[in-house]
Every structure is written in structure tokens, then in C-alpha cells.
Design goal:
By secondary structure, the chain is α/β, with parallel strands linked by helices. It has helices at about 15-25, 75-95, 110-125, 135-140, 145-165, 175-180, 205-210, 235-245, 260-265, 285-290, 310-315, 330-340, 350-360, 365-380, 385-400, and strands at about 30-35, 55-60, 60-65, 105, 125-130, 165-170, 190, 220-225, 250-255, 275, 295-300, 320-325, 340-345.
């Protein structure tokens, strides 16, 4: 497997890559991963890995080959290009010395896709690509500085990688048209939804709220995960500012890290209705989610079909209602509506967001019904067993084709 993101990263793509590799290893496969140094979502190399040039470690029965690369603290198209170039250069100079039977690449990393394709060609084996995010579309839609110029270059390279793959998996059906428009035959494209990689909450909700300082009579709106450009989290900052001018007690909480955290903290200065929390640990994470009253997922209005937030699978597990401030025609809105566990409102509209929070607070029974549909949806569609079997089936399909 080639995946820039891997454990000990516990949000984003890393947990999926890790569970896939460990599942394959547990099934008896000699499983190797070419990965970067852990850095997400803080965009800082984790302690224990700083200053290391190359590493080989065993995790969960998997051999992980790590290669050093740059980690930009702030995202621009140029800095992202340097990040990708570092991954590519080091992977080309020092690839793992193994002969695979099949190579699985996790994208959006363009460098990872190139490296995976090269490893597969050199070994004469199938190359399977799983698309978590579309980099070309991301450059165009996320608002990253210089993204317009980078989109065409990234899109062309992305298309070349995907056309060269034996099998392509996409995490949501909203990606299919864009991938086939790149020239990938529809028969090679398969929808492989992500699954929930966290356990359901099991602790005392009131106790968790008290520990976090959340009052019993206030409505807590929580956003958990990466604080990046595409999330458009300014809408929550402004909604909190509006909430602070009202009598109804509403608290907004941003939990996590990312390259926009400092910017958001500056915007939120003086807002009494907004708080920031560091990323929660693996065990604590579902308890904090379940302690909130409403879980928020936000995206810029321009984000349509370039990504599906991995946080949704965790949100659905908690039994709390979801408010999605996203484009109605995008994949995120489709997923929330299909789950029946939340509502979709216009993106970048803090007044509409706050009004929806008040509506849920005024109808606790309705909010409970919404939230209860989340775990049901996970059981029906997003179990880890089903998700891992879908990935295994892709590998079998690719190998059978050779």
C-alpha cells in the first residue's frame, strides 16, 4: 500500500489506510506500507518522528516504510506542490525493497498515485487506486491560494494516474462522473464507501459534558476534525458571534487542529459563545461527540464533488443530529440526506445555521429521532466488516484481471 497518511494519525485518511493494511495482514498477507511521517491534522510532524530521514517499523502486523517529506504549516498551491514533490522524490530514490503481488494506492496524494503506479509496473502487478479526495477538483473548489492555476496541472496528472490503474475505487457515487470524464472506463470504477472507524459512545453523557464545562441548559454545537480551507469554518465563527447576542444559551465548539486554526482563533477573538478544543484521543473522541447536542459539518459553497468528509461516519455513530452547511448538489449533502440523520442548509450562511440550531433545540424529540437514524445507517451501510470486504474485493478483482 502507498498512503502518505497512516497511523498514528487518527483522523482523516490515516485510520482507513491503517485498518485496511492491518486487515490484510490479519488475513495472512505479507503487508507493507510506504507512508509519510505522521503530521495530520496538525500539519506538524509528530514527536518521535521529527528529524528522522527514513524509518521502518512494525505496527499491527504491518511493515511500515516511512520517508521524510516537507510539511507546510499553511496551505497554498505552491506549498502543496512542494509537499507532493518531497513525497515523490524520496519515494523514487528509496522505494521499499519488496516485490508485491498487488499495489494499492490511497489518493488524494498525487505523489502516492505516481509511486504506486511505478511500483506496480516495475513488479508487473495490478495497481488499485482508492480515491478519497479528488486533488484537481480540490484545487479548483477549496479556495486554496493559487488553486486555479494548479487545478489543471493536478487534474491532468490525476487523470493519468487513474487511467493507468487496473481498478479504481471511489468513496462516493458523486465522484463517478468526474472520474469517468477523465477517461477511466466506467467498468473499472467501483464505489467503495468509507466505514466508521470509531466505537459508539459508552460513557456517561452528563459526566462528559460536566468535565468539558458544558452546562445542562445550553445547546452545544460541535465541529470535530480538520480545520482547513475547504471546511469554510468561518460560518461557525460568525454563527457563534450571532449566538452571543441572543438570550438562548448556545455554545459552538471547534475541536481538532489544522492549518486554519490560528486564523479562526483570531476571527473568534472576543466571542463568548465559541470555544476551541484540542483533538480528542481515540477513546475519548466518541464520548465528546455524543456529549454535544448537534454535530456540524461545513464546506465552502464551491465544494461539490471533490471530497466527502470522513467525520460523517463518526458523527453517525454517536446518535446525535447532524447539521450540514454544504452545497445541496454535493456528495456531502447527499450522504447526510440518505442517512436520514440530519438536515442540510445553505453553505456560508451563519443566520440559517443558527436558525437550524434553534429549531432542533426547540424540538428535542425530533432531534432525537434524527440522531437515532445515524447508528442504524452505520449498521446497514457503514460497518467496518463490509467496508474492508469491499476493498478486499477490489484487490481480488484486479488480480483476477491479470
Amino acid at each position: 500500500m502507498v498512503s502518505t497518511n497512516y497511523a498514528p494519525e487518527h483522523t482523516g485518511i490515516g485510520p482507513y489506510s491503517t485498518q485496511i493494511a492491518e486487515h490484510l495482514a490479519a488475513s495472512g498477507a505479507d503487508t507493507h506500507v510506504l507512508a509519510g511521517m505522521p503530521h495530520y491534522p496538525a500539519w506538524r510532524v509528530a514527536e518521535g518522528y521529527r528529524g528522522r530521514w527514513r524509518m521502518r517499523e512494525r505496527r499491527g502486523g504491518v511493515t511500515v516504510h516511512r520517508r521524510r517529506h516537507t510539511v507546510p504549516p499553511r496551505q497554498t498551491a505552491l506549498r502543496r506542490a512542494v509537499f507532493e514533490a518531497g513525497i515523490l522524490a524520496h519515494g523514487l530514490v528509496a522505494p521499499p525493497r519488496v516485490r508485491p503481488d498487488v499495489v494499492l494506492s490511497q489518493m488524494p496524494s498525487l505523489a502516492g498515485g505516481v509511486l504506486g503506479g511505478r511500483l506496480a509496473r516495475r513488479a508487473g502487478v495490478p495497481h488499485v487506486v482508492v480515491v478519497q479526495d479528488l486533488m484537481g477538483a480540490a484545487a479548483a473548489q477549496s479556495g486554496i491560494q493559487g488553486g486555479g492555476r494548479a487545478a489543471a496541472v493536478a487534474g491532468a496528472l490525476e487523470a493519468r494516474i487513474l487511467r493507468g490503474a487496473d481498478v479504481v475505487g471511489v468513496v462516493h457515487e458523486s465522484f463517478v462522473d468526474r472520474v469517468t470524464a477523465m477517461g477511466v472506463p466506467r467498468a473499472r470504477v467501483h464505489v467503495v464507501p468509507n466505514w466508521t472507524h470509531v466505537k459508539g459512545p459508552s460513557g456517561d453523557r452528563a459526566e462528559t459534558r460536566a468535565r468539558l464545562g458544558w452546562q445542562p441548559d445550553e445547546t452545544v454545537v460541535l465541529h470535530a476534525g480538520n480545520m482547513g480551507l475547504k471546511q469554510g469554518l468561518e460560518v461557525l465563527v460568525e454563527a457563534a458571534r450571532l449566538a452571543g447576542q441572543e438570550a438562548a444559551p448556545v455554545r459552538f465548539v471547534l475541536m481538532g487542529d489544522g492549518n486554519q486554526r490560528a486564523h479562526l482563533q483570531q476571527l473568534a477573538a472576543g466571542s463568548s459563545a465559541l470555544a476551541f478544543l484540542p483533538p480528542a484521543g481515540v477513546e475519548e473522541f466518541p464520548e465528546v461527540l455524543a456529549a454535544a447536542d448537534v454535530l456540524a459539518v461545513t464546506q465552502k459553497a464551491s465544494v461539490l464533488d471533490m471530497s466527502l468528509p470522513s467525520k460523517l461516519t463518526s458523527y453517525f455513530m454517536t446518535g446525535r443530529p447532524v447539521i450540514a452547511s454544504v452545497a445541496a448538489e454535493g456528495g456531502t449533502a447527499q450522504e447526510v440526506l440518505r442517512s436520514g440523520a440530519g438536515t442540510v442548509i445553505a453553505p456560508e450562511d451563519p443566520k440559517a445555521l443558527l436558525a437550524e440550531v434553534h429549531a432542533l433545540a426547540a424540538d428535542p424529540e425530533g432531534a432525537s429521532r434524527l440522531g437515532a437514524r445515524g447508528p442504524q445507517y452505520v449498521e446497514q451501510r457503514l460497518s467496518s466488516r463490509a467496508g474492508l470486504e469491499r476493498i478486499t474485493a477490489l484487490l481480488r478483482l484486479a488480480m483476477a484481471g491479470r
